[in-house]
């Protein structure tokens, strides 16, 4: 079934993405992030100015101490980053649909 661009955006705006760590909901704590998979190509956050935000599966960060050495995470947890004590993973998020003209047209993205 083929959806128009507007139908795709309406479907996207009603969904929710959950990203949970392996220990989320256990006595160890863990954490989660939750967001709607939508980005905006204008300062007005309106359905007519929205586009897709697609997230990919989590993957481990190899050698997190060297990758994150200029980050807030490093400032707080530097002593733990290259040990098994701290799970360090990343998620890639891409913005836009092929049909929307996206960044080429507006040079603006808000998430």
- Beta-strand residue fraction: 15-25%
Category from helices, strands and their pairing = alpha+beta
The global form is elongated
Major β-sheet profile: 3 strands, antiparallel
List the helices and strands in order.
HEEEEEHHEEH
Low-confidence stretches: none
Mean pLDDT: 75
Rg to the nearest angstrom? 18 Å
Task: Supply the number of helical segments.
Answer: 4
Structural domains: how many? 2
Order of strands, main sheet, comes to 3-4-7
Q: What is the share of helical residues?
A: 10-25%
| E-strand count | 7
Head-to-tail CA distance between termini: 28 Å
Strand and helix map with partners:
Blueprint (H helix, E strand, L loop, with lengths): L4 H9 L3 E4 L11 E4 L2 E3 L9 E6 L3 E2 L3 H4 L4 H6 L11 E2 L2 E3 L6 H5 L5
Antiparallel strand pairs: 1-2, 3-4, 4-7, 5-6
Sum this structure up briefly.
With 111 residues, this protein is an alpha+beta fold. Helices cover 22% and strands 22% of the residues.
Structure notes:
The protein has four helices and seven strands. It is of the alpha+beta class and 111 residues long. It has two domains: 73 residues, no CATH class; 32 residues, no CATH class. It has a three-stranded antiparallel beta sheet with strand order 3-4-7. The longest helix has 9 residues. It is elongated. It starts with a helix and ends in a 5-residue tail after the last helix.
Short descriptors:
elongated, two-stranded antiparallel ribbon, 7 strands, about 110 residues, 4 helices, 3-stranded antiparallel beta sheet, alpha+beta
